[in-house]
Amino acid sequence: MKNTKAERRLKDLQRLKELERDLLLQPRMKELMQACMRVGLKPGEALGWISDFCKWDLDQLSDGDWQNLIYEVVWFAIYGPAIPGTEFVPSGDYLQDLIHDPNSRLPSQKMIEELQQWAKARLGEFIEDGETYISLQPASVLMVKRDRKTARAEMMLKTNNLYQGFAFSFAHTLREAGARLNQCPECGKYYPARSNQTYCSPRCQNRVSLQKFRTKAQPASRASKKPGTRKQKPKR
Ligand SMILES: [Zn+2]
Hints:
Layout: H1 2-24, H2 29-39, H3 43-55, H4 63-78, H5 93-99, H6 109-129, E1 141-147, E2 152-158, H7 162-177, E3 181-183, E4 190-192, H8 202-223
Antiparallel strand pairs: 1-2, 3-4
Helix pairs in contact: 2-4, 3-6, 3-7, 4-7
């Protein structure tokens, strides 16, 4: 029993390796695979990436950082996070052909900046109002496809517009993982929260704890000079 399971796993791995080899032959696929590792395949990870993307100061990025970010955005726009329980579905298969054409142009820095502004605005609405609206262009078509192998139906966006591919992956990510989206009250950053998490990072948590400690400690240290009044809370 265990043996066959291991054999099946080995076969899967071999198949994966073959798939990887075939995919890597396509132009720009290596860069895209690396971008995929950074963005993450789970909707929660992709939401983390979007949150980070919104926070980055694009003026401060080095050439290498820019190159990485461009591929991350392209990866996200074409493939996006995997939909749980289904085969890997690209969100824009016209875009896919376009990007693997080595003569096609990668998105410009201006486009990335526009996408950052757009994503920031959508996350802001989503946090503030609990909903956000994503418009589709008339030329974009949603296709719903029945997959008998997985006994599910899948949906993909047919578009050759990177903005639209990005918007579709964004909507999908938000639908899957958006319930966990939070805004840090200390630094304003968006982040996918674990339960009971108020601040984006230990750093923000510590900063707030330190501030609280200081405001508590200050009046107490003044009061401590007068013995007997220590326990009284001084009023300011
Ligand atoms: Zn924070």
